[in-house]
Design a protein that fits this description.
With about 110 residues, this protein is mostly helical. It has six helices and no strands. The chain starts with a helix and ends with a helix.
């Protein structure tokens, strides 16, 4: 199923395993079940699609407030790389946190 089909099915309640399927989804590639469940509930509360970028940004901003050490870095960051790495290593925590991934994240953040 394509990303658009997946989002459509989740939004319409036709796919009931969103929180537990462990696939990375959205802006922060949410994978952990509790974070995905919270994203889903937030989208429904806001009356938005889980794929809505504005909703995801709002959710991420609220979620990241709970990561004080990351917020401290973000408030003082002097570069996109510093901010991006703080989020990558302190919040997203993908399996691959190599320099290549850091570079890809920084590049994406600059666009």
């Amino acid at each position: 199923m394509s990303d658009a089909e997946y989002t459509y099915a989740v939004d319409r309640g036709q796919y009931g395993n969103f929180a537990d399927d462990s696939a990375g989804y959205g802006l922060a590639q949410w994978t952990y079940w509790s974070r995905r469940e919270a994203l889903y509930k937030y989208a429904k509360f806001r009356g938005k699609s889980i794929g809505d970028m504005g909703m995801q940004l709002e959710f991420f901003w609220e979620e990241i407030q709970g990561y004080q050490s990351i917020m401290d870095v973000l408030k003082k960051a002097c570069s996109v790389e510093e901010a991006s790495n703080a989020v990558l290593h302190g919040c997203e925590k993908p399996g691959d946190q190599s320099r290549a991934v850091e570079n890809a994240e920084r590049k994406a953040a600059n666009h």
